[in-house]
Amino acid sequence: MTKTIFSTIALMALLIFSYLFTKKQTEFNPFTLSLNTSKGVVNLNELKKDKLTLMYFGFLTCPDVCPTTLSTVGAAFKDMTPAELAKINFLFIDLDPERDSLDRLKEYAGYFHPMITSVSMPLKDLDPFTRYFGIVFMKVPLKNSKMGYTIDHSTGILVLSPEGKILPHIEHGTNKTVMLAILRKLLAEIK
User: Which of 5, 26, 51, 127 has its CA 20 to 30 Å from the CA of residue 15?
Assistant: First the structure.
C-alpha cells in the first residue's frame, strides 16, 4: 500500500512538473525575444519581414563544422546579386556565451561575409530559443586541453520563411553550388 501511495505521489509530481515545463515552453516566443546582435538589438519579427532568415548555431572555437559552413555560406553569398542578398538575413547564433564576446563574434563572422550577423544571448534565453527551433547543443569536457570544453551541436542551417514558418533546413556539407540553388529556389517562392 505504501509503495502505491509513493508511486502515485511521484507520478503526480512528474505530471505537474511536465505541465509547468510544457506551459513555460509554449509561453516562450523566440520571435519577440530581444537579440543582441553585431548590428544592434533586434528581434526575429523585425528581421523576418519580407526576407528569408537563415540561422546557424555555432561557436568561435569550433574546430571544423562552423568554419566550413560559414565558408560555404560566404562563397554562396559572393555569387548572389545585391537584390537577392537584400532578401536574406543570416544569423550566426553563438552557443558559447561564457567564452565568446559579441565583438569577437562580429570579427569572426566578418571573415566569411559582411552579411553574416552575429547573435549572442545569455544561456537563460539560449536554452529555450534553441529548443523552440529543435537545435541541440551540449557542453562537453575536454581532457588535457587548455580550452577545457567544446560544444557539440546541430549542424544544419535553419531556414525561416518571412512568416516565421520553419522550412526544411540546409544540411551541413551542402556545397556552394547546391546551396546557391536552394537559396535561389526559396527566394523565388517568397516573391
Answer: 127
Same domain, 59 and 11: no
The pTM (predicted TM-score) of the whole model is 0.84
Q: pLDDT tens digits for 45-64?
A: 988 888 999 999 999 999 99
CB-side neighbour CA atoms (13 Å) of 34? 4
Residue segments in the chain with a per-residue pLDDT below the cut of 50: 22-24
**Helix, strand, coil percentages in the chain from 3-state DSSP, rounded to 5:** 45, 25, 35
Q: Give the largest CA-CA distance in the chain.
A: 73
Q: Are residues 163 and 73 in the same domain?
A: yes
How many whole angstroms separate alpha carbon 95 and alpha carbon 132? 15
- Do 80 and 1 lie in one domain? The reply is no
